[in-house]
């Protein structure tokens, strides 16, 4: 898990990686241009890390991001 987390953190599209307890061991915030880039990231960047399960969540609009004021302020 440590090696996968460090490899993810070194990727230019990854803006944060955290270790978790529960059904998932790692969570990564990834900013990509489109679904094609997401597919490429999963296929070519995650697969070699021996990651066995991936859940994706597409964010349509962020209300607040770390280090930024809430949207609309």
Helicity, as a percent range: 25-40%
Q: Which term fits the overall shape?
A: globular
Structural class: alpha+beta
Radius of gyration, taken over Cα atoms and rounded to an integer in Å: 13 Å
Q: What is the CATH C-level name? A: Alpha Beta
N→C terminal distance: 38 Å
- Order of strands in the sheet with most strands: 1-2
Order of helices and strands: HEEH
Beta-strand percent range:
15-25%
Number of helices: 2
How many β-strands, per DSSP?
2
Query: How many structural domains?
Result: 1
Mean pLDDT: 86
The main pleated sheet reads as: 2 strands, antiparallel
Task: Report a brief summary of the structure.
This protein has 73 residues and is an alpha+beta fold.
List the helices and strands and how they pair.
Elements: H1 2-10, E1 14-19, E2 26-30, H2 35-46
Antiparallel strand pairs: 1-2
Protein name: Lrp/AsnC ligand binding domain-containing protein
Pfam families: AsnC_trans_reg
Domain Transcription regulator AsnC/Lrp ligand binding: 2-59
